[in-house]
Amino acid sequence: MGDQRKKSAKAFKKAEKVIPGGVNSPARAFSAVEMDPIFIEKGEGAYLYDIDGNQYLDYVNSWGPMILGYNPPQVIKKLKEQLKKGTSFGAPTEIETEIAELIVDFYPAVDKVRMVNSGTEATMSAIRLARGYTGRDKIIKLEGCYHGHGDSLLVDAGSGAATLGIKGSPGVTENTAKETIVVPYNNQQAVEKVFTEYGSEIAGIILEPVTGNMGVIGPEPGYIDFLRKITRKNGALLIFDEVMTGFRLARGGAQELYKIEPDLSTFGKIIGGGMPVGAYAGRREIMDYVAPVGPVYQAGTLSGNPMAMQAGLATLKELKNKKIYTQLEAKAEKLEKGFKKNIEELEFPAYFNRVGSMFTLFFTAKKVKNYQDVKSCDQKLFAAYFRNMIEAGIYLPPSQFEANFISLALSEENLDQTIAANYQVLKKLKAE
Ligand code: PMP
């Protein structure tokens, strides 16, 4: 393996000398799948091309943002136009209002939006706001959910931290970590217990309403409703981290899907159309607690950056068309049927889970409902699956603790090719 990726191997050696681990985000490391990362040259539609000239069908989509596929013409056009006008002003532009209006339109729970530069900033700011607004310090977080690398949220986190088996992180003080109370996902009793003990100290609960960062797991019936009720009863805020699910599971995100109005929502990924963006948003009276109107301070030199806003706005304008979500669902359903048929036919011990255009193939025979279930998956088998899929020209997230994303650019033939590759690889693994 690897002969056809000589240039990538060389580029990685060079990168390792000047970048920690050779990557600018740990989730890009291929250590869990015992490979060197693949260096990318370009993306086109549903395809990624590496620097050796290999072509891959892509199910990572930059970890979610590229819902339209690579280089959608509407987005590129807007970026080119903005490039000529200027890439940053540090002063207001009308584009910022336009994109905020679109988000407000699609999310009934949102009256006001503040733009930041990443999902991490969005959740970090939402937590600060929840604490400032309620005058309380403690936050409830769900085990295996990932909300970026802000100190308060880097406790029992999913994604790269889970892949690398990092439970907390040196550098996060004990005092900070102890204000974050972690409970298992999909477990009502655990949340009740925390409220019984600390009720008046809880500023809010933050969660991925459908998780992507421990693989795709949806809420059990009644769970989200329960969280809405218990937070309201105790004067705590319900914070939906929709960085991954926003504009993906539906135009109105998971909150549309489960018909719940959270107090605060965080966004990222798709709303930047592939440029660095995050946002936090919510009801007027809470958002007006943010500076310059309110006392909770949060700022950003490049926040609302015009290039990022143009890419985001052009993407969201495409997503105004609700048919897009019907198309995504049809593609995702086709893939689900194909994968499930393969698993059944081969009697392979695997569990396929999907919500909308996010899915994970878990290497376990039993249903996956929480982080402990994901941890019990066969990671070695996943790694072998991943490597074989790469050889078949299918680029997947290099960890069991991640979501796969379906983009609009994937054609019927692309999906057939993926299902066929999945069959061949599972068959081979079964025989080994
Ligand atoms: N929240 C969720 C749900 C995420 O999936 C991520 C990133 N994968 C983040 C927050 C952090 O976003 P960023 O990497 O842009 O800081």
UniProtKB/TrEMBL annotation:
Keywords, comma-separated and alphabetical:
Cytoplasm, Isomerase, Porphyrin biosynthesis, Pyridoxal phosphate
Major localisation: cytoplasm
**Could you tell me which NCBIfam families the record lists for this protein?**
hemL, PRK00062.1
Give the required cofactors. pyridoxal 5'-phosphate
What is this protein called in UniProt? Glutamate-1-semialdehyde 2,1-aminomutase
User: What does the record give as its pathway?
Assistant: Porphyrin-containing compound metabolism; protoporphyrin-IX biosynthesis; 5-aminolevulinate from L-glutamyl-tRNA(Glu): step 2/2
Q: Which Gene Ontology BP terms does the record give?
A: protoporphyrinogen IX biosynthetic process
Q: What class of enzyme is it?
A: isomerase
InterPro entries per record? 4pyrrol_synth_GluAld_NH2Trfase, Aminotrans_3, Aminotrans_3_PPA_site, PyrdxlP-dep_Trfase, PyrdxlP-dep_Trfase_major, PyrdxlP-dep_Trfase_small
- One GO molecular-function entry: pyridoxal phosphate binding
Instruction: Supply the Gene3D superfamilies for this chain.
Output: Aspartate Aminotransferase, domain 1, Type I PLP-dependent aspartate aminotransferase-like (Major domain)
Q: Which Pfam families match?
A: Aminotran_3
Which proteins does it associate with, and in what oligomeric form?
Homodimer.
Domain of life of the source: Bacteria
Modified positions (N6-(pyridoxal phosphate)lysine) are K269
Output the Gene Ontology cellular-component terms: cytoplasm
UniProt-listed CDD domains: OAT_like
